[in-house]
């Protein structure tokens, strides 16, 4: 048996496995891909953190709060032992003139197939992370990922040099004019794509108020179903909770709309393992603070009654 949240995700996995087409990709890993899909989650029924594999709420929450703060440097994430953006920063460092260590070219693929190289890579990555945490100058130069999500959400710059805080503006709009159809935040800034370590996969989201409830719809242009999507579901569901709390509303639905929804070829065994599992009851989320969304910390959030199967590891495609 599966709870409604896990079932929606499992149905997506099974549909892509059944009708998806083989497709090459930027990382040359290879995928099975489907274009266009939608999931709906009723947030009044619980918090959609998958239970058929363990998903780290701490990683989800600290990344989201990093976006909300407008931060683009991995130092904040590393302070919470959140390593999900490390590879992109590390890649920038090893391509620089300041890097004098062993050859790390194509580290993402080589670490999967060569045990000796993998040990070397882990050693270099550990040194890189330590330097980010201890050396502010180094962190400023090599920890920053460019104009990624946090920059676009909180400091979008137009052609005239004006700075727009999209997230603060949309919260104010929800409070002042809840029936508006313009409650939109976009991370896709065509003028700054080349300045980003990774162009935004979750490109824009829209809020909708009905009967005192706040719903959110996300459009995701590119979706790594096994590794990324469980995080994206939880992240935008948490964002909906936080903004509803800020605006004095209840939570409604999180609607997740996909463009290219894909399973990487090296995730097939992992996803088959997950699909064999039953699920547990969905957990719930509590916000234990009256602070503004812009001041809230991870320690102000509590995930309650989360029971899951063990995590399933799979390589990230860089």
Description:
α5 crosses α6 (115-134) and α6 crosses α7. The protein has 318 residues and is of the alpha+beta class. It has helices at residues 4-19, 57-68, 74-79, 86-94, 107-113, 115-134, 136-142, 149-154, 166-176, 229-247, 268-275, and strands at 21-23, 31-42, 156-157, 163-164, 184-186, 202-210, 213-224, 250-264, 284-287, 301-304. Strands 1-2-8-7-6-5 form a six-stranded mixed beta sheet. It has a two-stranded antiparallel ribbon with strand order 3-4. The model has no long low-confidence stretch (mean pLDDT 95). β6 and β7 (213-224) form a beta hairpin.
CATH structural fold name of the largest domain = Thymidylate Synthase, Chain A
What's the average pLDDT? 95
CATH-defined superfamily of the largest domain: Thymidylate synthase/dCMP hydroxymethylase domain
Rounded to the nearest angstrom, the distance between the terminal CA atoms is: 35 Å
CATH architecture of the largest domain: 2-Layer Sandwich
DSSP strand (E) fraction? 15-25%
Main beta sheet strand tally, sense and closure = 6 strands, mixed
Q: Globular, elongated, flat, extended or rod-shaped: what is the shape?
A: globular
Quickly describe the structure:
This protein is an alpha+beta fold.
Key features of this structure:
single chain; 318 residues; alpha+beta; Thymidylate Synthase, Chain A; 2 domains; 6-stranded mixed beta sheet; two-stranded antiparallel ribbon; 11 helices
Secondary-structure map with pairings?
Elements: H1 4-19, E1 21-23, E2 31-42, H2 57-68, H3 74-79, H4 86-94, H5 107-113, H6 115-134, H7 136-142, H8 149-154, E3 156-157, E4 163-164, H9 166-176, E5 184-186, E6 202-210, E7 213-224, H10 229-247, E8 250-264, H11 268-275, E9 284-287, E10 301-304
Parallel strand pairs: 7-8
Antiparallel strand pairs: 1-2, 2-8, 3-4, 5-6, 6-7, 9-10
Helix pairs in contact: 2-10, 5-6, 6-7
